[in-house]
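Backbones bend. To wit:
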Amino acid sequence: MFEAVRCMWMRGGTSKGGFFLAADLPSDVASRNAWLARAMGSPDASQADGMGGGHPLTSKVAIVSRSARPDADLDYYFLQVVPETGQVADDQNCGNMLAGVLPFAIERGLLDAADGVTEARVLQVNTGAVAALRIATPGGRLRYGEAMDTKSGIEVEIEFRDIAGSKCGQLLPAGSAVQEIDGIDCTLIDNGMPCIIVAAAALGVTGYEDPADLEANRELRRRIENIRLKAGPLMGLGDVTEKPVPKMMLVAPARGGAALCVRSFIPHRAHRSIGALAAVTVATAALLPDSVATPLARNGSGSRRRMTIEHPGGTIDCILSLDADGNVKSAGLARSARKLMDGMLFG
């Protein structure tokens, strides 16, 4: 039995969780998942008997190894442990936890830090897409100091490549920019994260509410889940009753000079911020001619767009490059990561 496993707890962007070397975990999937659920303290909404924080954002796992592929240096496999049920799901990627992969790999000796800037190509195993990560390593050392999106950490530049249709097979899996579901116009889109984008006003809310108020609105949550369940088959995801994707994004005009304001459900809890890949997907939707987000957004101009997405916890900057036809060809953002704990975790 695997009772204790070496683990590093890290914050990546606005998420945190356990980072493991693949070789340190049980090779049998069922044994591995059962161990991870126990280690997180699930099934239990509070996760009091484990390391999880009682919320999806703090109940995450990153499994890292050297990659065997010639186009990647590292493999990153993301798992979401559902606090209440103990389900361990790999139906999605996590761009926030991705921010911790390169620092973790250096910490564990999978890569050597260069003097100046260290780069790595990371295969996101859940989707098959490769992302390019860069961090500053002056003197060949990691320095967790001031970072852009939190009070401390190391800044990580992330460039996503070939992420359109990451889980659904194409950017607009339903074939058009707008689908009507339950009388509501929706944009079903996947540019790194399968999302359903709806104008908040269409659901009778402003889009500026505190997440706790949105969670308390039972009628809103009922309508959102009905839309999500009907969108799943349209997006090629099948029955999504027990799946963490697609995510629901309620959008509204930004109030603080950003491109767009969003309230995200992941999928049943209202997010205190927004996932990195979800932000990229929302920003991409805002650049489509006919999506529900476009008339609400400040889109700017040019072949390179900095799209600032406003969320309950602040903002996130997405940088999108467009081709000559106005299609998004690459997307990137800057996040941060910080090492919180390194030791042995008991399951």
Observations:
- Residues 179-312 form a domain with the Diaminopimelate Epimerase; Chain A, domain 1 fold (CATH 3.10.310.10).
- Helices lie at 29-40, 95-98, 101-107, 211-216, 218-234, 276-286.
- The first strand starts at residue 4 and ends at 12.
